[in-house]
Amino acid sequence: MEPQVEKRLQQTRAAVEADPGSASAWGRFGMVAHAHELWDAAAVAYRRAEQLDPGDVRWPYYLGDVLSVLGTNLDEAAATFRRAMAQKADYGPAHMRLGRVLHAAGRSDEAAVELERALELEPGLQPARVTLAQIRLSEGKLEEAEAMLDRILAGQPRHAQALSTLGQIYMRQRRRPEARKIAERARDAAIYNLFSDPLMSQVIIEGVSSVLIWDRAKAFLDNGDNEQAALGLEKVLELQPDNADAHQQLAVAVGNFGELDRSRRHLERSVALAPDRVDSLIQLATVQIELQEPRAAVKHLQRVLELAPEDPDAGWMLGRALILSGDVRSGLASFDEEQKKSDTIPLWVRNDWGSALAQNGRPNAALEQFRAVLAQEPENAQALFYVGLVLEGLGRVAEAVEHYCRSMKAQPNPPAGSRLQALGQVCR
């Protein structure tokens, strides 16, 4: 047991021993035990707290959650949630948790009623929608279940439980290619899907072990809450300063809200702790390119290709870094080499490649790359601008102006505006 966990448990137990008639002392000890998955101790504490203060909704609510995890008496868990709901009838998460317990107990009709009520009260309780879809699946109502899951995935495309359940539907419908695609998406899904439950949040914050803090931080990161993820990861690093994975994840979180210098520092630390970690090396190179440090990025990308020569991104990124560092010839050679290994060329690569070809005195080859981009994205502002530059260099000014104007229409940008001004042209 980590020292900070032991200390928290000892403090709350001491409070119970000092005042064994205090419901709040018993309840707080139960919450700390609950947060650290000491289920039996939590159940004892919550039962005593409820006996001492049956009017506090938290104790039966938390006890219901503990009993549902233990799974030894789901009927008792359901009854316990109902005691909580007698005091807080319109609390959506309580209806959701009761519905899930009833579903696990095989009481699907009752479960559906509670889950539907939960969604009436709080439409954002997606775990309730997933469980309801699972009930519809068990009833053979595949289209209805699929519609529920599609609604979840429209807003949360990496929702693990929704993807898994949708895969089951596709298999039942013999839609095997789609089921395989869903399975691939599920492998990269967010295991933790956050939802609002203010009562349970009071338990969660009692968790002080590095594992629990780490799990919460990953959940926030998976669900796009980078600020909360960063706060949690900082606490992990206070406890485990040499955790390379935590440094890497913190770098992702702070990078997502624009703190690139801070992101670079944590990635450098991650790489120092785990020199052969490919994902950290690639992320560090990406940040260095963003910070206009392409020469440093080249070194890390070359190391990635030594460790993982088939990496799908490193070769393309190396080409970009070489070009940005002024070594256009080597950058083009890297692109040529990567093309031999890949059937698909990312659009950003084609724009970089075309720009480098133009710099290297190969305008027609450059135009081929840019037009390949425009074939997929006709209004790609960057490709339109680059085509204009190449055409202007070839003396085809009228065509260049047309492309500059299209670029400005797609996305107003200073480079295209500057060229139009220099040519004394105005878009109509």
Task: Explain what this protein looks like in three dimensions.
With 428 residues, the protein is mostly helical. It has a domain at 3-187: Serine Threonine Protein Phosphatase 5, Tetratricopeptide repeat (Alpha Horseshoe), CATH 1.25.40.10. The protein is built from 25 helices and no strands. The protein has helices at residues 3-18, 23-35, 39-52, 58-70, 74-87, 92-104, 108-121, 126-138, 142-155, 160-172, 176-187, 198-204, 210-222, 226-239, 244-256, 260-273, 278-290, 294-307, 314-324, 328-341, 347-359, 363-376, 381-393, 397-410, 414-422. α5 runs antiparallel to α6 (92-104), α15 packs antiparallel against α16 (260-273) and α21 packs parallel to α23.
Topology:
Elements: H1 3-18, H2 23-35, H3 39-52, H4 58-70, H5 74-87, H6 92-104, H7 108-121, H8 126-138, H9 142-155, H10 160-172, H11 176-187, H12 198-204, H13 210-222, H14 226-239, H15 244-256, H16 260-273, H17 278-290, H18 294-307, H19 314-324, H20 328-341, H21 347-359, H22 363-376, H23 381-393, H24 397-410, H25 414-422
